[in-house]
């Protein structure tokens, strides 16, 4: 039968069909082919493994030790501000901060970081030996402890204090880690919940066959669901953190010089602006502070191809005073360094690409010895006035709120001293607390107000020096023609003299010299009426009133010079005859700054040369500069057009007698035996029931003038009684500091 054993009907059928090969007849071939199919892929995998282990191992080890390069700026030092006598008024000081990498201070240490540190100590072949890896980890832990011990020894502190700082940093970073991962977990949980709800709703609507097809399709098309993600590593874990700020320079250098002893430690270098003299001329020196966004954008628009001073966000820029005017000299240019870090963010190498360039030094004309004394005497005078106000409130209804003194060289315009009171500490503006800043802003005396350049007050009788110039140059008034002063001009109740208001008498017969000496208002009223307001306005304009003097600090104001004949197109207040009389004695709508009055006295003293008041003397190049030549700063000077030497000589004669003659308004309070002083008192009426402003302006020595000065006390009262003594103390301070030498004059009073 066909189904018996050994039935050969299949063989017969195959032979009949012409198929002579049978697999069952060659079992060895079948086994060989099956083995070949299995062995060839295994050989390929084994060869690749062998190549990786023996031939290409260094490539993977190099990936393990792969580094990243970044470029960081090196802070530069801004130039100093130095006085002419060598005292440093502003400078940059280096601040060194001790920083540690988070992994080196973390406790307990991160296991992955610890293992990676251990592997770097082993050869590639040794890294597969578990015992050697564990031994290397122990070495890392020992080195870590040794680091803190050596660091505490170098910094002369205890390990406990360093560990306390480390714990504070770790606590702060762990708070960040917890917050970041908590938000990530909430976000992931919300996403998983949404997916689960969608799947549940779809399952309820599908039958079993569709459910199977959905599972099959998802298995082929969707990525596998991963287990819960690992903890997010935040940037703070791979960064350096400050453990101590402002460490001494020698300690910072000792740590930086031996990086092998202090792995994971970095010294961060920064510069801070300091003002070592604190309250010395703060309004003039100004301040450097962080550049604001508006200024930065303005510079970017001004220099679209690149800022020549390379200002970026966070840099300091001059905000006020000399710091702002000479910022282009003081500004230092940052350097550039390349920083190489490992995969953990640790710095392993730095390279200087471009050295930083320090800013140049600016030398000022200030004599700090005189400046100190001037500021102190101004503070003391104001304090005495305030105490007097408390004792006599009926007379002093509005106590003196501030004052100003300006001293300048009559030949060059160099300012040797300038004081505004009250003053403030420049360092306070660097990092003030909200309470400190609010206290300064709420101070009714306005300590931040730069009075020398921005305080605009009526000059009072100090302006009579200019009116004297105008009347002589007009040719309409003879300075030697006698004038009878009755104490008032037209009516006893209007346009009166001080002595008439208080004593009911006039000055009697006067000439120009005596009118200046005794400050007769009526004489100048009559002179102004004779020559007209246009003449006074012309010479006031010629001598720089109504416009800034051009001093090299920003924000100067020019005062107000009323124009008696404005263009018809301008809508201004009408000019009245009383305005002419008021302007002649420094009243009406006329306002000036102390700097303008000091320059007026300089013009009278130097035979008519108009100087530009200034503070900067020269620029000294930094050590990194290619030149070592001091750059002198020049300022324009010009002679006042149309003024005659005889005119100024006659005005000087009157100003000298103000102090030297027994009937002069400054004789009792200003005169000194050691040196001759010329000047003019001024009592500027303020109105509104407030006290008058007290002025005294002049020059010294009277015969060969060197310095012109102006003293003004806001709401101080009488110029002779209040400003005069301050002027006397000022000249005595100039003698004490050797700015002036005694002349021992022998004057004969007229």
From TrEMBL:
GO terms for molecular function: carboxypeptidase activity; penicillin binding. Residues 79-350 form the Penicillin-binding protein dimerisation domain. It is found in: Membrane. Its main location: membrane. The keyword DNA-binding does not apply. Residues 181-204, 550-576 are annotated as: Disordered. Keywords: Carboxypeptidase, Hydrolase, Membrane, Protease, Transmembrane, Transmembrane helix. SUPFAM superfamilies: beta-lactamase/transpeptidase-like (SSF56601), Penicillin binding protein dimerisation domain (SSF56519). This is Penicillin-binding protein A.
